[in-house]
Amino acid sequence: MQISPLDAWVADQIGLVGRQDLSIQVLRDYQRARLNVTLEHAALNSPFYRQRLGTFQSLSALDDLKQLPFTTSTDLVEQGLQMLAVSQGEIERIVTLRSSGTTGQPKRIYFTRSDLERTRAFFRCGMSQMLKAGDRVLVLLPGELQDSAGRLLADALQVAGIDSEVFGLVNDPGKVAALLASQPFACVVGIPTQVLGVVRHPVAAVPYGHIGSVFLTSDYVPSALVKEVRRIWNCPAINHYGMTELGLTGGVECQALSGYHLREPDLFFEVIDPLTGSVLPAGEMGEVVVTTLTRTGMPLIRYRTGDLARFLPDPCPCGSCLPRLSKLQGRRTGQVDIGGPLKIAMPELDEALFSLSGLINFRATLLPLASGKKAFQLIVETRQGAERQTIAGIDRRLPTLPALRAAVAAGNLVLGSTLLADEPLAVSATAKRMIEKQEKEYASLETID
Ligand SMILES: [Zn+2]
To answer: What gap in Å lies between CA 291 and CA 416, rounded to an integer?
Structure first.
């Protein structure tokens, strides 16, 4: 198995001549130095951080970072412009994330030209393990705007001699399946539920083994979906940890498909206890916190991503010497009350339902009832001809999910019958995991009052 190409890239980025010299200690020394550069830049140039951090004092050890306050999604919403550490004229791209939070105010993330170039560099490195010059890639991400995710990726690959067709988000899975069947693509890049819609589309079946790999980008990729890609297309599905605040990209799996190798030269990751805020050791699940190390436009210092994961304590089978982050386990705020102390999150539903071969997508809703109970209802999009068997499968499976079963047994929840969607759900909020993500993605699992 090839060692993750990130090791060589990390070594190069932090100023080493070869990967042989790379070690965790060398990386941490580099990161501490970069943290000090970031803290100084932020404290000097950003009104928000000047006020939040006070007088700049450099960190003598990485451990000192623990003493700095967190920044949150609310800070981005309420004080985004004050977080800028450059003049607005130097901002090349603004990504607006609409939130379903109480204020309804959008988050805006600002990037300079050099910030975008760092993103392109990481995209190029992450995809180099699957691609070579002359390959073609189908990109199922937005590409209308110059620096949208699809375009940034295509531009990054172009430098390496790899051509991309930026198709945009999938409105019509049949059209994409037909395109894939008619032309060779070495790799398909997309959002998990959208790719699943194409993989399961029966109209223009893509020849088995026709595609070299699938690159799934999201904060959460159901393992049932990865298995389906392998079964139907006979190729590996590599997960990518994408989030706008991370500069669209934070980590990528290697060929061992065993957790994310991280964008270490640009980002410093911590995992914290979401309740106490204390930093957790490797192996313990908590909230992912990120500090940017090279971001010039809008540095983020101890930004609480809301994503839940853990550092994997064992070395990667690929032989890399660097740490890995586990597959993400959903969002801290993505859990929804289903009565009493019981909660359920989208990943639990994803894992349970996406293994049903006829299911393309679903939306879950909790409705308050006059009795004080809540009704749980799914609206589903299925493969044509598989409607009845898929709905029957869901209705058999839902009552077996531990959280739902307990809530029903406690008399707090009623399971409504599953409904078929009138129109494709693929262009709904869930389809926009990469670009609007998080709160929005779980907005479908909301209480309607
Ligand atoms: Zn690896």
So the answer is: 43
Cα–ligand 1 centroid distance for 320 (angstroms)? 6
**Residues 148, 197: one domain?**
yes
Neighbours of 368 (CB within 10 A): 12
Spacing, Cα 2 to ligand 1 middle (Å): 8
Checking if the pLDDT of 428 tops 50, the result is: no
Q: Does residue 447 form part of some domain?
A: no
The whole-number pLDDT of residue 105 equals 80
Determine how many CB atoms are found less than 10 A away from the CB of residue 259. 22
Is there a single domain that holds both residue 308 and residue 377? Answer: no
Strands 213-218 and 187-190, sheet pairing: parallel
CA of 321 from ligand 1 middle (Å) equals 9
What are the tens digits of pLDDT across the range 12-52?
Answer: 999 998 777 899 999 999 999 999 999 999 999 999 999 99
Domain span at 318: 1-330
Distance 11 CA to ligand 1 centre (A): 15
- CA 165–ligand 1 middle distance (angstroms): 28
What are the tokens at 138? Answer: 């189908």
Contact indicator for 267, 290 with CB cutoff of 8 Å: yes
The stretch 100-119 carries a mean pLDDT of 84
Residue 264 sits in the same domain as residue 237? yes
Look up the pTM and report it.
0.86
* pLDDT reported for residue 188: 96
Q: In the chain, what percentage of residues exceed pLDDT 90?
A: 57
> Dihedral of the CA atoms 178, 179, 183, 186 (nearest 10)?
-110
Distance 180 CA to ligand 1 centre (A): 29
Ligand 1 midpoint to CA 326 (Å): 12
Q: Give the Å distance between the CA of 435 and the centre of ligand 1.
A: 27
CATH number at residue 203: 3.40.50.12780
